[in-house]
Amino acid sequence: MSDLPVSSDLNKAITAWEEWLRHGKHASKHTLVSYHTDLRHFIEFLSGHQGGRVGFKHLQNLEAKDFRSWLASRAGEFEATSTARALSTLKSFYRYMEKQSHIKNDAIFHIRGPKLKKSLPKALGEDQSQQALQTIGTQHEEEWVNKRDLALLVLIYGCGLRISEALSLHFKDAPKEDSLRIIGKGNKERIVPVLPVVKAAIEEYISACPYPFSPDSPLFLGKRGKALDPAIFQLQIRKLRAALHLPDTVTPHAFRHSFATHLLSAGGDLRSIQELLGHASLSTTQRYTHVDKTRLMNAYKNAHPRA
Q1: 307: burial class by Cβ within 10 Å (0-12, 13-18, 19+)?
Q2: Catalytic: 224?
Q3: Has 104 been annotated as catalytic?
Q4: How far apart are CA 193 and CA 283, in angstroms?
Q5: 188 band by pLDDT with thresholds 50, 70 and 90
Q6: Which is catalytic among the residues 185, 223, 287, 295?
Q7: Taking the complete model, does pTM exceed 0.85, yes or no?
Q8: Beta carbons within 8 Å of 184's beta carbon, 6+ residues apart
Q9: Would you call 253 a catalytic residue per the annotation?
Q10: Start-to-end Cα distance in the chain
C-alpha cells in the first residue's frame, strides 16, 4: 500500500499483516484481495477525514464516532454485506496491530455492523436443473466450449462446488477415480464423491479441447487457452437463464445450493451434507432445512403419533 498516504512504519506493518494473512492464516487469493480493498478504503477515508498522512498515532486515537463516520460514508455506495465484511477486516487488522504491540484501540470492537437480512439459499427445482444441464452445452458455435461449459456446470451441481473451487482445479486434479480432493475456504481440504456422469463430462471436454494440457495447467480453459475467467462462465449462466426464463437468482452458486437442497430432499443427513459442502459450522448447512419444507412436513406427518 505504498501509494496510500500512510507513514513508512505503518506501511511496513500493513505489509506484514498481509503476509501474515497469506502465510499464517492461509487466506485464499480472493480473501486477500477483499481485505486489501477494505483496508485501502478505510485508510483513504481516514486520510480525508483527519487530513494528511495516517500513522500509528492516528489509528490509536480514533474514537467510536470516527469509525461510525467511516461506516456512514459507505452507505449507499456499498451493500450491507460488503460493509459488514469491511468492519470484520478492520477488527482483524486492529487485533494484529495489538498483538504486534503497535497500537491498542478498544473502540473498534464496540462498533456493530449493519443488520443483514438472513436470505435463504435460492435453489432450482430438479426439473429446472435438468433443463439447465441439457441447454448449457448448446450455446456456443465451438463444440469444445459447449463441452467445457457442460462439464463445469455438471461438476458444480454434481459435487456441490463453489465456482472458485472448480476453477482452481488443475489438469492433474481431473477425477480419475470416484472422488475428488478440493481445497475450499480457509485452505480447508475435503474429499467429495464424483458421479460417473461428472467424470464422463470432464473427459469429453478434455478430449475436445484444442489446447494441450500439462499437469499444472488449469483444468478449465478459456478460448485463448488461458485459465477460464469466472465472469465468462457467469455470463453463460445469464444467457442460460434468459433462454429458459429462469429467475435472476439462478447463478453458478445456485447450482451448489441445488446440490444441497436436492440431497436433503432425497433423505441426506445434515452432517454428511455439511462435509460435502465444506461448511465449517452446521448452522450454515441448517439453512437448507428451511428450503426443504415439503420433506420436513412429510417426516412430521409420518413420525408424529398425533399426526
Answers
A1: exposed
A2: no
A3: no
A4: 23
A5: confident
A6: 185
A7: no
A8: 162, 165, 190, 278
A9: yes
A10: 64
CB–CB of 182/24 below 8 Å? no
Residues 6+ apart with CB under 8 A from 130: none
Q: What are phi and psi of 132, to 5 degrees?
A: -65, -45
Residues 264-302: tens digit of each pLDDT: 777 777 777 777 787 766 666 666 655 555 555 665 566
Tell me the three cell numbers of residue 79. Answer: 451493500
Look-up of cell digits 477415480:
177
158: which 3 cell numbers?
454434481
Asked if 140 is an active-site residue, the reply is no
**How far apart, in Å, are the Cα atoms of 290 and each of 112, 119, 229?**
27, 11, 33
**Residue from 85, 102, 256, 257 carrying the catalytic annotation:** 256
The band of 9, judged by pLDDT with boundaries at 50, 70 and 90, is very high
CA 25 to chain CA centroid, Å, is 17
Question: Do residues 167 and 218 lie in contact, with contact meaning Cβ atoms separated by under 8 Å?
Answer: yes
3-state class of 219 per DSSP?
A: coil
256 as an active site residue: the answer is yes
- Number of Cβ within a 10 Å radius of residue 62: 19
Residue 209 has pLDDT above 90, yes or no: yes
In single-letter form, the type of residue at position 34 comes to S
Residue 295: what pLDDT? 55
Q: Which of 162, 199, 257, 262 is catalytic?
A: 162
Given a contact cutoff of 8 angstroms between Cβ atoms, the answer to whether 263 and 252 are in contact is: no
Contact 220, 148 (CB under 8 A): yes
Task: Please confirm, yes or no, whether 288 is among the known catalytic residues.
Answer: yes
